Structures are given as C-alpha cells and as structure tokens.
Amino acid sequence: LPNSHLCYYEFELGGLQKMVSLLSRGNPKFLAITVDCLHILAYANQESKLSILGCGGPAELVRIMKTYNYEKLLWTTSRLLKVLSVCLMNKQAIVDAGGVGVLTVHLTGRSSRLVQNCLWCLRNLSDASSHLPNQQHLLQILIQFLSLDDPNSVTCAVGILSNLTCNNIQNKVVVCQCGGIEALLRICAQTGNRDEIAEPAVCALRHLTSRHPEAEMAQNTIRLQYGIPIIVKILDPPSKWPLLKAVVGLIRNLALSPHNYQPIRQNGGIHRLCQLLSKAHEMVQRRLALAPDAGPARVEGVQMEEIVEGCVGALHVLARDPGSRADIRALNCIPLFVQLLYSSHENIVRVAAGALCEMAQDKEYADAIEAENAAAPLTELLQSRNEGIATYAAAALFRMSEDKSQDYRTRLSVELTSSLARTDSAGGGQWSESDMFAQSLRHRQGLGRAGPATFAQQAPPPPQAPFQQSPVHSHHHIGGGGGGGAGIMQRQTSGGQIPGGFNPSFQAQQPPSGAGPGAPHAFQHQQELSFDGFTGSAAAGGGGGFAVESMQTDQKYFDTDL
C-alpha cells in the first residue's frame, strides 16, 4: 500500500498508538523493527507525528538513545527523531526530554551514518535549544566538525553554531574561547560562494561580535586573522541577498572597533556598502513606482528596505572615522541620506539621521548636508516620538549651525530645548545612546532657556510614497518529508534547494534578558550600535527593523533509506 493509505488504515485500527507502546520492550532487535515501522508512518505525515507525540513517543525515543548501544537501533531511532524534529511540537518535546544532550554523546561515535543523523537532528532542534545551559561540550565538538571535508557535516555544524550563539551570552563566550572565530573564518574563505554554508557562518560571526564580554576581542580577532578582506569580498556577486544581509550586519559590528575602520575602508567595504545601498534603494523605488500601496520589495525572501536600513546603519558607525567620512562624501551618499529622511520606515529614518549627524562633524560635509535642504526635514524630526530620531536630528542641526548667526542659533536652541525636554519626559528614566547626544547638546549649547518653539523652516520636497512595513519573517522547517499540518507556518526560502543542506531564512529574536533598556551601561550602549535583535527597539524607541541576531530555521534534508 502507498504510505498515505497505510497511515490511514493504521489510524483506523489504532496501530500507531499500539506500536508506540511497544517502545518500552527490552529487545533491541525488536525495538529496531518497531522504530523503523514508526519512521515509515511518520515520514511526510504530520498527523502521524502528532499521534506519536500524544503517546509520549519522543521521550521513549530519547530513552532508547540513552540506554542502548546496538548500532542498528540507534541509527533507526536517530532517523525517526530527525523526522519528528521538523514538527514544532515534537521538537520541543525532544528538547524537554533531554534529547540534545543524548544526541551530543553520539556525535563522537564510530558510526558515520549515526553521527550524520544526530547532526541533522541537532540542526533541526538548535533553534529551540539555544537557551539550554552547559552546552560547552557540544560547542567544542561542533567547532571540530568545521575542519572536516564532508560538506554535509560542515553545513550542519555551522548551522547549529549559528543558532546556539543567537542571544546566548554564555555560548558566545565559549565559542570565542575555543577557536570558533578562526574556524568560521576558514569556512568563509573556503566556501564563500556556497550560500548554504557561508550564510550561517557569517551569521554566527555576527552573533559573536556583539553583546557579550568577549565581543570586542572577537571584533579584533577577525581583523588580526585577516578576516576583513574575506568578509568584504562576500559582498561581491554572485552572493544572494540573505547572505548579503548577514554580511552587512557583521561589517557594522566590526566597525564598532575603531581599529577596524582602516581595514574596512582599504578593502573596499565602504564602496561596496554604498553600491549595495544604491541598488536596494533603486529596487524599493521601482516597486513603489509600480504600485504605491504594494508591500515591501522582496528579493530572495529579503526586504530591500532592510538592506537599505542595514547599509545606512553600517555607514553611520563607519562615519565616526574621518577617512570613512571622506569616502562616503566622495561616493555622493549625502543626497541619499537626506532623501531617506522622508521615508515612512521609522528605522530607516533613524539610521539616516544618525549618518547625517556623524557626517556633520566636518564643516565641509555639514555645508553639503545643508545644500541638500536637509534643515527642513531634520527640524520636523525634532518632533518625532522616536527618541533616537529626535536626538540625532538635534545633534545634526546643532553641528550644522556652528558657523551661523547668533539669531539663527538662538532660535535653534529654543527648538532643541523643546525637543529634548519632551524626550526626557518620555524616556522613563531609561538610558540610551541618544542620551549622550542630549547631554552633550545641553552642555555645549546651554539649552535650558524657556521660550516659544519657533524655527524658520524651508518648504520640504514632496515626501516619498510610504513603505509598508511587514511583520517579522515567518519560518518553516522542511525535513523528513514533513507535510503540512498543525504548527507549520508559511515557508520563506532564500534561494535554490540545496540537496542535503538547508536554505536558511530568518526569525527575528528579541534581545536576551539583561540587554534591554534597563540593562547595565555597557550592554545598553552596544545595543544601539550592534546588529543584535531589533535595531532601535529599545535604545531608539523603534519597533521592528533590521533583524540581525536571528535563528536559522529553514532547512532541507532528504532521507532515501526508508
């Protein structure tokens, strides 16, 4: 009988439930046959997977993996766990039953087919197990797997590392201390044209370079290991957009270290970022011209608005360096930054205002910003409900006004006073990077005098058609022939299907506890600047945005031995 018909009759007779109850028997060879039958029933059938879950199957299977050493039984059980692990509910049950630790033990076994099944199963479980404590042994094994010649093992290992380092400070520190950065850089150098390996590797490096005690060391290690040329080169064709998005986030994190300004600039990082920014912005404008009310411009599952935000955000951080400011000015980015101030995408406005704020440090560039009629939109942005936007706009205007008449500066002071007083009252006592600007402005300008909020405004050009921000990306596991059913969400691919590999997409993760607005000073400062969680979600008051510390949740594998 075909598999679907067999499942139908088994359900009618209650055979599947009876077979799950047989897992408590003690004969290894009998158990191997039983588990193999369950694998046939569960493959490509969501109802069977849920029935196995309802009968306590995941816990029994984990117990078998923990109790027996019969290779055929371990292999068939790990194969069934691999199929079940693509079901969201079974996945959590396997994790809760201690499946991650049990599978980790078998990674060091002699059976290559058992190791391969355990790797794929851990790959499927990794986005639900990043919160588990004491994963040092698994992380060390995975780093060792990165040096293997087997592409499937490397694909699994790098995907697991990417997920386990997502918003997990302890895991980040362990990977950094165990040579994970060097191993990931080797992977990027060797497989830069294979997105299914390069993308999770870059994502893991992005996680390792932000929001943990060893982050600065990680940023500098990449430079000292000659990794910056490798990373920047990935921005060249034929890299796909999901990989490009990950690289943009990594470059921004690298730019948090002043020692990396020059290597990024000398290896063409600013030039490539500007090219990518221009290309993504053109695609957004083209989409809006065709259908003003259309949703975000998506290519290969990535919103081009996110690429715009990411590139401008990276240039914002790099613009702290005088040499980088000169390159950005030479590449004629200032007009585009000013144009982006009219975007209805709040996070794009924030990073554009921040970039202009940094560029305005030099009088020549401040004059160029003013020549683009930026004073009008920046003045309007002083009234923004987003604290980051208002403060960046205030700082840019302050720097642009340093050579203006006293009357102009007085009127600007009154406007800035009103804006800063309002953001203070709305801040709730929480610290953010924009507070540094506000305190600097008060100190240097003496903003504290009362008066009417008046400031001569130029007529702004017509605003762009609004972007329509979409919800955070959905995710979908593919594996074990996992057919549709309960718990399965809409799939979002990131390119062609990779046999034996995975096609990663992104599910934005909220920042970990201890990294929110009320966190200690050091981490809070870095949250505004590093790609980790939602940019602007706390420090700048934004919502959503460039999701940059994210799970790899979409993968594909096939199991031909039924």
Could you explain the architecture of this structure?
This protein has 562 residues and is mainly alpha-helical. Helix content is 59%, strand content 2%. It has helices at 3-13, 15-21, 28-42, 46-54, 57-67, 71-84, 88-96, 99-105, 112-125, 136-145, 151-164, 169-177, 180-190, 195-208, 215-224, 227-233, 241-254, 261-266, 269-290, 304-318, 322-330, 334-340, 346-359, 363-371, 375-381, 387-400, 406-426, 434-445, 521-529, and strands at 298-299, 302-303, 506-508, 550-552. Strands 1-2 form a two-stranded antiparallel ribbon. The chain has a two-stranded antiparallel ribbon with strand order 3-4. The longest helix is centred in the middle third of the chain and has 22 residues, at 269-290. The protein is elongated, with a radius of gyration of 26 Å.
